[in-house]
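subagent[fold] <- orchestrator: predict structure for attached chain, return tokens only, no commentary.
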Amino acid sequence: MQTVDFRYFPLQQGDCVLDLGCGEGRHVIAAYTQAPVHAVGVDLSHQDLCTTQSRFADFEEAGVAGKHLHLTQASALNLPFADATFDKVICSEVLEHIPDYHATLEEIRRVLKPGGLLCVSVPRRWPERLCWALSKRYHQTPGGHLRIFRGNQLWAEIERCGFTGFHQHGAHALHAPYWWLRCLFWREGEQQWLVRQYHRLLVWDLLQAPWLTRTLERCLNPLLGKSVVFYFRAEAGQ
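subagent[fold] -> orchestrator:
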């Protein structure tokens, strides 16, 4: 399940691409498969990095010139890379988890080349507020969400860090009701009947990509998308 739309985040041969907070690898692996790039995934969780490495085995193209994937365990507040290392940076569903997200944005700006592209996604405000209202445990679990962003404010904060925004869109509208159900039936968990049936629908949609659900989600994403996705270009001379 990809949040980044590579039509607005085009990868070029030879790009060095950072997926900051890569989790179990969906975007760092997607970047690797998109083009002959050096894809780097960073996360605090060693377990998630191990899962990424395991999943990558199904996508590895051994011997393809210029195509590499590398994983590193590190903090978003202290990235182990020199200034202006990366051509592109992805930070998807990460900032809501980090206490000092402003420092993370500064680190991203430091390691991104002037003119490089940044993609940031966070939960959309109103679907997220409903999740918080339905279940306190949704955001109070260890590693959970610390804040709910206002999209326009976050956009402005990122621009103040030396970026120029050029596009935004919603994503994963069909996933919003799933999380509302999860929150409503938090105690029963994933095995609650309605939650389980809706999850089956999402898996079917992901694997089969039928026209009906794909069209429905595209129509709903501007309003109902669980995530809002921003695209920026790093300003020169910062």
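orchestrator: received. Logging for downstream: The longest strand covers residues 112-123. The chain has a mean pLDDT of 95.
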